[in-house]
Design a protein that fits this description.
seven-stranded parallel β-sheet, two-stranded antiparallel sheet, 9 strands, globular, binds glyoxylic acid, binds magnesium ion, Aldolase/citrate-lyase_domain, Pyrv/PenolPyrv_kinase-like_dom, lyase, metal-binding, magnesium ion binding
Length: about 290
């Protein structure tokens, strides 16, 4: 939600998303940045966010705005900020700068040190090349996010439709980037989140793009409009059928292996052979399904 729109900051509070991010970066014009900081602090302190994770996206570290964004928002609304999102991250040092700055502010205003998390957006070639070091840069880091619009611009990709497949290219032009981010995230036990889809009225288009990153293992995707929320919640949760099957594998594996006195590693479930690796795959799907309330 753009920090410059008091109306949208109000509307966001009641929406069925898991997280909301209040933006001070690209959705806010340069002349509106100072006012947006005030709106964001007020919305965090006075709003009822209904248990949603509350993140604030500050400006990137090549601008003159970042330090004041962090200081004003965390000093002004620290107890109501869950995460600071840093866009266009290019190296681990930028995350370390944010970590140290947050620690100083937390100490200065009497907040628990380390309470505020960090989300990092990977939005250019430099950031992608550095993503392993970025993912390891701070214990505050919770999430690595793909920023497809800036990313496409930064590598001169020949398309204006973010996330959509490109007819001239026979494969998925995002596959390498998504996998690179996913590996770094999983190596450091972080969430991997896909970025925005800009054609906000094209929910089928949103769904198609979301399905690709969900299939790889991404945990979720940004929504830019309330109309995209239902599709996102649906796509990143397992299907009921897969969820039921995962629970069945877990039950069957526990049952048959204990029946064999713990002496059998692989057992049959109908026509399917299940072993310890199947149990681990089933745990992933079951955990996602339980979190989605299936
Ligand atoms: C998001 O910030 C993007 O650039 O896609
Ligand atoms: Mg961006």
């Amino acid at each position: 939600m753009p920090g410059s729109s008091v109306k949208m900051l109000g509307k966001a509070q009641g929406l069925p998303a898991d997280q909301v991010f209040l933006d001070l970066e690209d959705a806010v014009a340069p002349l509106a940045k100072a006012e947006a900081r005030k709106n964001v602090v007020a919305a965090l302190n006075e709003g009822d966010w209904g248990g949603k994770v509350r993140a604030v996206r500050v400006n990137d570290l090549t601008t003159e705005w970042t330090y004041r964004d962090v200081v004003e928002v965390v000093e002004g609304a620290g107890p109501n900020v869950d995460c600071v999102m840093l866009p266009k991250v290019q190296n681990a040092g930028q995350i370390q700068w944010l970590d140290i700055t947050l620690t100083q502010i937390e100490k200065a205003v009497g907040l628990e040190v380390g309470r505020i998390g960090i989300e990092a957006q990977i939005e250019n070639a430099v950031g992608l090349v550095e993503v392993d070091a970025i993912a390891a840069a701070s214990p505050r880091l919770e999430t690595i996010i793909f920023g497809p619009a800036d990313f496409m611009a930064s590598i001169n990709m020949r398309s204006l439709s973010v996330g959509a497949l490109i007819p001239d290219y026979p494969g998925d032009p995002y596959h390498y980037i998504l996998m690179r981010i996913l590996m770094a995230a999983r190596t450091h036990d972080l969430q991997a989140i896909d970025g925005p889809f800009l054609q906000i009225r094209d929910v089928d288009g949103f769904r198609a793009v979301a399905k690709r990153s969900a299939a790889l293992g991404f945990d979720g995707k940004w929504v830019l409009h309330p109309g995209q929320i239902e599709a996102a919640n649906e796509v990143y949760a397992p299907s009921q059928e897969d969820y039921d099957h995962a629970e069945l594998i877990l039950d069957a594996y526990a049952h048959y292996t204990s029946e064999a006195g713990g002496r059998r590693g692989a057992v049959m479930l109908g026509d399917e052979m299940i072993d310890e690796a199947s149990r681990k795959m089933a745990l992933v799907i079951a955990a996602k399904g339980r979190a989605a309330g299936l």
